[in-house]
Design a protein that fits this description.
Layout (H helix, E strand, L loop, with lengths): L8 H14 L4 H12 L5 H13 L4 H14 L1 H29 L3 H31 L3 H16 L4 H21 L1
Helix pairs in contact: 1-2, 1-5, 3-4, 4-5, 7-8
Amino acid sequence: MVSTPPRRLRDLFLGFLLISIMGFGGVLPFARRAIVEQRAWLPAEEFTDVFALGVFLPGGSLGNVAAILGHRFFGWRGAVVGYLGLYTPPVFVTLGFTWLYSQYGQLPVIRGAVQGVAAVAAGLLLSTAAKFLVPYVRAARLPEFGFIVVSFVLVGLVRVPLLGALGVVAPLSIATAWWRRGT
């Protein structure tokens, strides 16, 4: 797939602004679809790599992705514009919902609605995780797929703290990638 970077800072800002608005309740599925499938700013595998870096860095993962892509396309101004585009709407929405929840959060109907939204968010997260796996499975990149499984087992099942799992899996995966490029 050929990537098509945004042509102007305005396009970058509006792209991330729309991602944040459409991603109400969970931006990752919408961000991936918008960046990879709709706007073609990155191919799927490269999005996965940029997202992995965004997760590894401190701060919000998708905010980091917005800054990384913004910087790639427009330098430091792009990093700032991408970040602001992604986070401007959620700040105001979150402030409004925080106030509403503080006033009405104890009502049974509101608690039921929140539980329903949590189930939808879990489904979106699982479907996006499956989309992340597809490029690795199609390309038969078994070492990378193995690190995904090991990470899941360590953090999700064995309950190893995230930093501990990263301390083990990240150096091994980096060493494997360097070794494979050298062969």
